[in-house]
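hiii so um. not sure if this is the right channel but i have a protein structure encoded as tokens and i wanna go backwards to a sequence. like what aa goes where. can anyone help
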């Protein structure tokens, strides 16, 4: 599927708009949204950044109401427009039909992404170099593609097909159940979607409720410290390590992953984020994801996103929700009930906990509502009724509308990597690539 053939617009699922809040309400909300850093021992922390990697595959609001990503699971954030395209041919090397990603740079030939002379990552979506873990996932999938060509002798197209099939399998079978609960995944698949109605590629779009609120659940899953590798075992007391990487940021936007920090090719490194049990009892950081709740960890609570106004992440998310003219949580809950979806509404007392401003009691910004729902309905382990339905129906809907996705194309994968258990897991991909 070529970029450009899939609609690139944002649209609302529910044609309602919340009453606007003044900026002071958002500032008051942002000030109570943390800091807190509680683990969810059912979800390893790698899934937080896998979630971010998925986000960067399907949605990118550049501010003009246009989605800069195709809203299907085609990893355009990894492959760009392919080796034959003018804009992305410099990502690749090798013979025609067997192109592999160029990885590494002079400071770190294998354990880092390709970088230009200013150490900016040469990848289609710069957001996949935003922090060290998402950058390492980008590298993991690049190296997965490369190994399928170099070791299994697949063609470019077959390697890409294998990568996409395995990635989509992990999204649907491993990631989504952790984020919205297994029962909701099964119920959406067996009872059918009621809200995200797109039956083929010409009808898909990126729902504003997803991009502007519900899928931003991941911000509350970030933790303050992680065990990255044997050298940085419990690191984060200096959050700049996470964003600027240990090699420092020589220019704005540039990074250097020095070889001491390499997350791949160095024993158990990336695996630590998906199987935290391998760390016991060696280290302090537990490498579980944070609970999905209304509290951000100190590192994000205090993070100033960019040197301009409204630079606190929670505040920006709330402002973006209003800029997108989203319905509020209560309006979405009612709309879902009207569609026959089982939804338990949050009470005013739930919403006003923790000295939340009274203005949001019945007019709760959707992002805050779905975080509070996860907290009240599932103790922060996964999303609740409203958040889970929007995230689940969108992800399943985008897969079902794509004739090439694993939900429609049952053809044999060009290559099956070895798996430890019956079903493929991200851990098998990490093992295969290491
Ligand atoms: C350290 C980790 C992260 C940082 C620093 C970060 C930062 C940001 C920033 C600055 C924005 C733009 C906010 C605005 O002005 O509206 C944003 C948007 C967003 N973030 Fe994150 N984020 C992180 C992790 C995540 C994770 C883990 C997820 C989901 C699992 C996520 C989902 C989203 C989504 C869906 C958007 C809107 C994307 C769009 O359509 O443009 N983020 N993030």
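sure thing!! here u go:
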């Amino acid at each position: 599927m070529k970029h450009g053939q899939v609609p690139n617009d944002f649209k609302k699922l529910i044609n309602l708009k919340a009453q606007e809040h003044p900026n002071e309400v958002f500032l008051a909300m942002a000030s109570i949204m943390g800091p807190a850093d509680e683990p969810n021992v059912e979800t390893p922390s790698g899934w937080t950044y896998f979630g971010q990697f998925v986000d960067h595959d399907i949605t990118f609001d550049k501010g003009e109401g246009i989605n800069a990503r195709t809203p299907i699971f085609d990893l355009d954030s990894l492959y760009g427009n392919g080796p034959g395209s003018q804009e992305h041919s410099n990502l690749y090397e090798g013979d025609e039909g067997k192109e592999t990603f160029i990885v590494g740079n002079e400071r770190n030939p294998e354990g880092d992404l390709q970088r230009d002379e200013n150490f900016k990552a040469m990848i289609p979506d710069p957001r996949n170099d935003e922090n060290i873990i998402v950058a390492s996932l980008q590298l993991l999938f690049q190296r997965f593609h490369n190994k399928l060509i170099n070791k299994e002798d697949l063609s470019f197209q077959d390697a890409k097909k294998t990568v996409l099939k395995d990635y989509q399998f992990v999204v649907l079978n491993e990631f989504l159940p952790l984020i919205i609960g297994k029962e909701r995944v099964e119920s959406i698949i067996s009872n059918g979607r009621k809200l995200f109605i797109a039956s083929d590629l010409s009808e898909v779009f990126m729902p504003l409720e997803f991009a502007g609120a519900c899928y931003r659940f991941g911000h509350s899953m970030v933790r303050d410290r992680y065990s990255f590798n044997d050298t940085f075992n419990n690191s984060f007391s200096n959050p700049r390590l996470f964003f600027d990487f240990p090699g420092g940021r020589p220019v704005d936007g540039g990074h250097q992953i020095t070889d001491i920090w390499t997350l791949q090719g160095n024993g158990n490194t990336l695996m630590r984020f998906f199987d935290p049990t391998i760390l016991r009892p060696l280290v302090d950081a537990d490498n579980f994801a944070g609970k999905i709740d209304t509290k951000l960890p100190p590192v994000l609570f205090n993070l100033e996103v960019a040197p301009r106004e409204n630079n606190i992440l929670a505040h920006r998310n709330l402002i973006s929700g209003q800029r997108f003219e989203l319905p509020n949580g209560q309006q979405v809950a009612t709309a879902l009930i009207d569609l026959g979806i089982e939804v338990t509404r949050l009470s005013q007392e739930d919403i006003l906990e923790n000295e939340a401003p009274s203005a949001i009691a019945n007019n709760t910004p959707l992002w805050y509502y779905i975080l509070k729902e996860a907290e009240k309905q599932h103790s922060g382990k996964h999303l609740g009724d409203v958040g889970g339905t929007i995230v689940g129906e969108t992800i399943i809907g985008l897969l079902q509308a794509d004739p090439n996705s694993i939900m429609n194309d049952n053809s044999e994968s060009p290559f099956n990597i070895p798996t430890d258990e019956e079903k493929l897991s991200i851990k098998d991909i990490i093992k295969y690539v290491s």
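oh and The radius of gyration is 21 Å.
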